[in-house]
Each structure stands twice: as C-alpha cells, then as structure tokens.
Amino acid sequence: MKQNVAIFIALLVFRMVNAHFVQTFFQPDEYFQALEPAWQIAFGPQSGAWITWEWKEHLRTSVHPYLFAAAYRSMDWLCHILQADDHVRANALGAAPRLIQAFCAASMDYLTWRIAGKVYGARHAATRAALAVTVCSPWQWHCSVRTFSNSLETSLTAAALYLFPWSMFLEVGDGKEADHRVSPTSLYIALAAAATAFYLRPTNIIIWASISAVIVWRSRSFRKASILAQAAAVAGSSVLAAFAAADWVYYKTWAIPPVRFLYLNLVQDLATFYGQNRIDYYFTEGLPLLLTTALPFALLGLYQSLVAGHSRKSTGQLISFTFGTATVATVLAFSAISHKEVRFIYPLLPILHILAASPLASFFNIDDHNKGRPVILVCGLAANVLIAYYVSQVHQRGVIDVMHYLRHRQESWTEAAAVGELPEAIPANISVGFLMPCHSTPWRSHFVYPEIEAWALTCEPPVNLSAEERLTYLDEADIFYADPVKWLDNNMQDRKVISDGHDTVTRSRLEQLDLGRRKWPHYLVLFEQLTPTLQPLLAETRYKECRRFFNKHWHDDHRRKGDVVVYCMRR
C-alpha cells in the first residue's frame, strides 16, 4: 500500500513538472472545448470568453468545463486571500487547469501500471515495463497534461479498465495479482466511469462495445451477459441523469450532447468540414505518432495477445486477448470515419502500453548478456527525450508566446495609466486583431484580462445547410485569405484612420464616419506567410513590426507557415 502511494505521488510530481514544461500549441480544442466555457462559468458572461458554435448547438457537455471552472474559482479565491497582484494572479489562473490535468495524467500512468499487474502479475517485469513505457512516452508528455476531453476520456477509460471485475466474467484463477474487486459495486463503478467517458466523447462506445462482445463470447453465459447488461443500464442511466442535469444548468434547457454530437457528425457529416484523411491514416500515421519508439513492441504484443487468446490458461491472457480485440476493432471502426485525428484513438494508449510491456521486458531482460540491446535502449530513450522536448518547447510555441506578450502589454498599459503616464486620449486597455486562420491561438484563458479588446477571424461550419450550399460555402477565414487586402478594405475602417499623414483630430473625425466597421486595433497579429501581402499596405500606416516569435519549422497548413509577427500601432 505504501509503495502504491509513493509511486502515485512520484507520478503526480512528474506530471506537474510535465505540465509546467509544455509551452506549445497543439490543437484549438484544448482551449475552446474546455477552458473558454470554463472561464465563462467561473467569471461570468462579461469575462470575454470566446464561446464557439459547438456550445450554441449544444454539441458538448458542460461537465468537462465545470471541472476547470472549479479550478479557476479556487485559484482566484486563493489569490484573493493571499492578496496577490494582477501579474501573479494571471499566472496562477493560467496554471490552475494544468494542475487538474496533471492529476488526471498521473492517475492514467498509475492505473496503467495497476492494470498491467492484473494482466502479468504485480511483481512481473512486464508490469514494471508498462509503467516505464507510459512515463517515457513522448505522446503522454505532449498530450496527457493538456486539457483535451480526449485526455480525460483516456484517464476514465483506464479507471474503468482497472476497476472492471475481469475474474467475475473470465473465470480463470492464476495466482497472480488477486482481483479483490469482484463485487457488483466494482462493476457499477467501472461502467459508470465508462459511461462518463462516453458522455464526454460518444465514440468511446466503440471500445466498450468491443470489450463487451468479447466478454459475452468468451464467457458463453447468458446469466453473465444479463448481469453486464443490467449493470451497464443502471450505471449509464445514472450518469446520463446526473450529467443531463448539469447540462440543464449550463444551457438553461434540456440537452443531451452525445445525441446532438452524433446527429451533427453522422447525419449532417459536419466533421468533414474540418478535414478528411486516408482510410489507412491510423495505421500509417496515427499509431506511429501515438506510440513512437514503443510501436514495434506494441505490434508484437498485440499479435501475441490475439494468439494467446485461443487458450484459457490464465485470466491475464484472456484480458490481453480482450484488449487486443478491442484495439483492432476500435482502429478499424475509426478508420471508417472520414475525419481522423490521432487523439481520437488516444484512449487505446494505456492498452497498447500494457500490450507492449511484455515484449519490451523480454527484449531488455537484464539476464540477457547481449551488449547491443542496452545501446538500443539508450538510443530509444534519447529519441523519446528529443521528441518530447521538441513538441513541448519548440513546435508551435510562437502562438503561445504571443499571448503572454500581449497580456504583459496590457499589464504595462494598466500600470502606466495608474500613475498617469498615458495621455488621456489613449485608452488604458489594449486592442488586438488576429489575421490568422481561426483558433490559431488560445483566447481568454491566456489573455486573462477581460479589458483586452480582441477579435479574430472565425470559421463557423455550414450547420443546417444543404449539400449544394456546402459546396460553395466559405467561412470568414476562407474569405479573408482569398483576398486579404479586399477583406480589410471591406471590413475595417478607412485606412486613412491609421495613415501617417493625418493628425489626431482628423483621425477621430474619420473614425466617426466609419462606425459600422471594425476599428483598427493597437496590435495586429499574423503569420509570417501573410507579410509579403500586407507589408506594402501597412508600410503606409502607423503600424510597424514590433515583435516576432518563432513558431515552427514546418506546418501542413501553408497559411500558418513561418513566425508569428506582431505589428504595433504607433501612438
């Protein structure tokens, strides 16, 4: 027991350090499906949070944001008690969600190790190898501490797999780690965790449908199938009732987000608006990205699990067979969906790490005197460290750094206004415009201050449009990139407002004549790719490049290539 507690504490500290070192952008869902609604819940509708179309369509459950809203409110209260200044409070609020996610990530690591103990035995080398694989995984370092619903889904899936009473259904005792949780209570809690994962991400049902099918087939017992179905119905309906009530509080109307999710993504096929991938994507890109250096061991472990499943030698082998079958079925099912992302199969990672553990432990057996294998181990670990460093400290860092820069500029302006260093004609709050593909940066979770006036290009999908209308549909970002100069002329105030050739009085008069359009902000933020197009236009204005942040060495979207460039308007 003490060893288990010590290992969890060590994992928690490790993931807290992990959360601190991740300073890059991955995908916008990390912010707009979690932190923005959480910010609004915590600080109110006037807090400046960006609530995207998904929330207006009741596509997402509020349960996930409520978790981070509680973290925000708790941290805000603590800062108030400690009388922290605005700068410290802003940093503390930025760290609060990552602390929650670090706990979830540490739990995932810990549960992966404990599940491996059920499969291989608590003292087996493969069990220790499973813990080592999850701790050393570049994907885990990169993604587990991010506030994706997929990350929480994976932690919940691991919890459900650990709590599930395998020996109740698979009936083989083998003397390995005893499954003490064979009571119905354990079954109900496991299925409640699975139901929660499904409510967050409805596609999680594929994993549990596969596992249930294997259990029913291998047990060949109508009674056990009935027990499983009854428990699933009770746990599922309880979770549905509780979360539907939470969503009623958030949406002010009854909403079942999983149903809405399936309708919009399957019936209206809106997911394809955000991209389509080849049918082999998960085999050629998804699994390699998820597993990196553990890929060959996972593939071998997957094969061994399927082969060993034909026997009934041990409960562990049957669990492995169930895991292997669920993995194959889930990847095949996801491959049939047009819109693919590697994080969609993230919940399989604990399973894959467990399957990889046995071949890994055998290959690096300390009793094997093969001198080449330690070299392979060191090279593999070095590769993992380099990958983890690059994705957490280098790749797509600029879009995060620019948000910190802008927040600090707001702090500087506020301080200057407080001591009378700003002219009365200059507002004490900054304004920012992002001429980038939509959701290229975080938003209020990183701005923090509601006083910052900001806007960005949008990309609302073609909800409720016919197939013919979708063929010609362009979102705001598409329209902008088709002709950036024309878009600025049509949507922004007259360029004379920002011209070097007019005094303050003339500019003010011109602004009054153009009130129906967007004002030119104090800061314009764009990717380097756009500078050849806009530089000639901005050269005739009071905008000058003032900061530049390295963002990435490459990107599959040409619009996001190059540094993040900031243009500041001279006063």
UniProtKB/TrEMBL annotation:
GO MF annotation, one: alpha-1,2-mannosyltransferase activity
The protein's annotated pathway: Glycolipid biosynthesis; glycosylphosphatidylinositol-anchor biosynthesis
Domain of life: Eukaryota
Family (UniProt): Belongs to the glycosyltransferase 22 family. PIGB subfamily.
Record localization: Endoplasmic reticulum membrane
GO cellular component: endoplasmic reticulum membrane
Residues passing through the membrane, by range: 187-215, 227-251, 287-306, 318-338, 344-363, 375-392
Source organism of the structure: Pseudocercospora fuligena
Keyword Membrane found: yes
Descriptive protein name: Mannosyltransferase
Transferase among keywords: yes
GO terms classed as biological process: GPI anchor biosynthetic process
UniProt signal peptide: 1-19
EC number: 2.4.1.-
InterPro entries membership: GPI_mannosylTrfase
Main location: endoplasmic reticulum
Membrane topology: Multi-pass membrane protein
Function summary: Mannosyltransferase involved in glycosylphosphatidylinositol-anchor biosynthesis. Transfers the third mannose to Man2-GlcN-acyl-PI during GPI precursor assembly.
Broad EC category: transferase
UniProt keyword annotations, A-Z: Endoplasmic reticulum, Glycosyltransferase, GPI-anchor biosynthesis, Membrane, Signal, Transferase, Transmembrane, Transmembrane helix
